[in-house]
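Hi team,

As requested, here is the filled-out complex form for the 2-acetamido-2-deoxy-beta-D-glucopyranose run. I kept the field names the same as last time so the parser does not choke. Let me know if anything looks off before we queue the next batch.

— J.
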Amino acid sequence: MGLWKRLGGPDLAQVWGSCWILLLLFWRGLACPDSCTCTSTRISCDRTPGIGAFPVLKNLSHAQNITDIYITYQRYFASINEDDVKIYTELRNLTVVDSSLKFVSRQAFLKNLKLTYIDFSRNKLTTLNRKFFRHLSLTHLYIADNPFQCSCDIMWLKLLQEANMFNMEKQNIICINENNKRITLPFMHIPNCVLPKVNVSTREVTILEGNSTTVFCEATGLPDPNVSWDISQVKSNTLIGTVKHAAFLTLKNVTSLDNTKTLVCSADNVVGEDQVIVELNVHFPPNITLIDYPTLDHHWCIPFSVRGNPVPKLQWFYEGSVLSDTDFIWSKIHQSSNNMSEHHGCLQLDSPTHLNNGFYTLQAENEYGKDERTIMAQFMNDPDIGGPITDPGFYDYETTSNDIGGTSTDNSNGVTSTDVSNEGNEDSITVYVVVGIAALVCTGLVIMLVILKFGRHSKFGLKGFVLFHSVPLEG
Ligand SMILES: *[C@@H]1O[C@H](CO)[C@@H](O)[C@H](O)[C@H]1NC(C)=O
Ligand SMILES: *[C@@H]1O[C@H](CO)[C@@H](O)[C@H](O)[C@H]1NC(C)=O
Ligand SMILES: *[C@@H]1O[C@H](CO)[C@@H](O)[C@H](O)[C@H]1NC(C)=O
Ligand SMILES: *[C@@H]1O[C@H](CO)[C@@H](O)[C@H](O)[C@H]1NC(C)=O
Ligand SMILES: *[C@@H]1O[C@H](CO)[C@@H](O)[C@H](O)[C@H]1NC(C)=O
Ligand SMILES: *[C@@H]1O[C@H](CO)[C@@H](O)[C@H](O)[C@H]1NC(C)=O
Ligand SMILES: *[C@@H]1O[C@H](CO)[C@@H](O)[C@H](O)[C@H]1NC(C)=O
Ligand SMILES: *[C@@H]1O[C@H](CO)[C@@H](O)[C@H](O)[C@H]1NC(C)=O
Ligand SMILES: *[C@@H]1O[C@H](CO)[C@@H](O)[C@H](O)[C@H]1NC(C)=O
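And here is what came back:
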């Protein structure tokens, strides 16, 4: 720095500094690592001098558009670490081939849930942990031509290949045994390397609400698998104990909310995992959680909800006496929610009248007890008590009274005669008007005639006219 200052003074130093800043900004803006080329969705690193670590885009919003990373012929590239890939949340394709990849962290792809295609062919991998891919839904996994060590740690690859998962069947995967012999994967045999197998004391727990129970889970497999219970679904109090490759689960004071819920016992080791689902069948006495006033929808419905396991037997009572199903009144469950062991239904009534008003009681019963609730239902008002307007009988009565009155017919006759006389009056007025107009016309004509007769000579046509119109004048 001192040398630069001596040579060019502060000016040169400033220029040099700005150059660096510009260069930095340029690289930042381009955001593509050295030896790589980038498009908006793809990073491709295939050039010299090469990358020594996983390519990282500084700009997060750029990184989140990357779906494809392609790394090839990178002899200094050796590891994919825990945090290297997590910024590429949209990554689908990851290719690292013909490079020096030796290590892949088991946490490397925790955030890359869209990753479906992995190619690690022709690298220096000696092992690969099963956990790195467990949560991924891969379609392709290429790992041929890596110097894997024959060991239990890669037994999972052999099992995947045997099952032809991820298009692995045709790959030439080899491993090197302790005698430095290359062995193709199907011929790899490792002692004490066995997939876990879970065994539980029962697959369905039937228990009375409030009681307690213990379920045992034991797993075989080598190396000794870890055994665990997933109790995320249950609300009851639990106690879990593990001993080596076994685990017990105690449920205390079991709640009815746990009916139909499941418990899962899992076991896993380096080779693989296994799990068994245990279903809960919690018995409990009935509880009518809802009964409500009737509503009209197609039919009348007295809605109710009832919980209970086993499903309670339902019985309705009307004013204290048994109400059996008929074509007009029947009880029906419309919907059952499994997770709550709750059943929703209706007492349906077809065109009920005031005769159906009264107290309706629902009784629900199973082997553990019974519950009952009552509702007062009023479909129509009683005509003896009810107001006249809401009772259709009122309208019936009115109609009848009109029909009965024979006098009304007479009245209407009277009205008709009046109408006729009115019509007569109108006719005579018309007659007067016509006669009046005729008289006016005649008068006019007579005047004209007089004028013509005395003023000028006339022809025969006019005489006839006079003759015709002289009659009313005479009359
Ligand atoms: C990242 O890139 C976007 C779009 O190109 C840009 O708007 C944003 O400022 C950049 N962020 C950083 C930190 O460079
Ligand atoms: C990322 O993708 C979105 C939508 O595909 C696009 O609008 C945006 O410009 C892209 N950002 C970059 C930095 O390429
Ligand atoms: C991933 O890469 C392979 C090979 O390059 C290609 O066939 C495939 O279409 C790519 N898939 C995606 C989702 O980009
Ligand atoms: C599973 O466990 C039950 C009882 O805990 C036992 O009787 C049975 O033999 C076991 N099955 C296996 C395959 O271990
Ligand atoms: C529930 O516990 C009671 C009292 O401990 C017992 O008598 C009953 O048999 C148990 N019922 C069930 C279904 O486990
Ligand atoms: C069981 O749980 C219920 C409520 O969930 C509670 O009222 C009751 O006291 C509990 N019984 C015991 C023995 O803990
Ligand atoms: C089993 O559990 C132990 C302790 O929690 C852990 O160190 C070990 O890695 C686990 N093994 C497997 C295969 O998950
Ligand atoms: C019945 O259900 C109601 C409403 O959900 C609740 O308040 C009540 O405690 C329950 N009764 C019994 C005996 O479980
Ligand atoms: C029960 O299931 C219904 C839908 O089937 C859901 O909406 C509700 O949240 C569930 N309730 C519980 C307690 O799981």
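Two things worth flagging: Confidence is low (pLDDT under 50) at residues 1-10, 15-30, 386-426, 457-475. The two ends are 149 Å apart (CA to CA).

Thanks,
J.
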